[in-house]
Amino acid sequence: MSGLGEKIPMPAGFPEAPDRDAFTYLLPGNLVASRDPIVVTTILGSCVAVCLYDATSGIGGINHFLLPKWPAATGGTPRHGSIAIPKLVERLLALGANRGRLEAKVFGGAAVLQQLARAVYHLGAQNADVAIQILDRAGIPIVANDTGGHRGRKLIFHTEGGLAFVKYL
């Protein structure tokens, strides 16, 4: 897990985490998986965050990747979607989540720089497409998808129930 940050006010109707220590800020290239309720926040531009949760077990997690694919057959880090998504699934299963009950929410993938926004297939679009393709191949349904556009996003994700709140920047 990333370092803990200051408590973030939750939107109306958004469940509070049970205590102060259950809040964390997710840095790019990292992931969080937990069977305990945690509220995770991150900031996305062209990066993508995939939130996965098993509502029955209350196990959930999130990653934040910067680049779509690791170019080599081996190695890689969660900075790449092709590594970050399988690693998150692996961690959730190790905590006791059931693959057949996992659901996904995908956020980010914007073209925040004007020069890049003119490109037909900019980095943000590539990141979002990789997430969707990997989740599809894994048989994990995407129940929410807020990707693309030209604005960054602040994402708040509650691991226990899979609730997510997005604020455009």
User: Largest sheet, described in full?
Assistant: 5 strands, mixed
What would the principal axes of the Cα set say about the shape?
globular
Number of strands: 9
Low-confidence stretches: 1-8
Through-space gap between termini: 25 Å
Radius of gyration from CA coordinates: 15 Å
The helicity comes to: 10-25%
* Tally of helical runs: 3
Question: pLDDT average, as an integer?
Answer: 87
* Proportion of residues in β-strands: 25-35%
What sequence of helices (H) and strands (E) makes up the elements? EEEEEHEHHEEE
- What strand line-up does the widest sheet have? 2-5-4-6-7
Find the structural class using helix and strand composition: alpha+beta
Question: What's the oligomerization state?
Answer: single chain
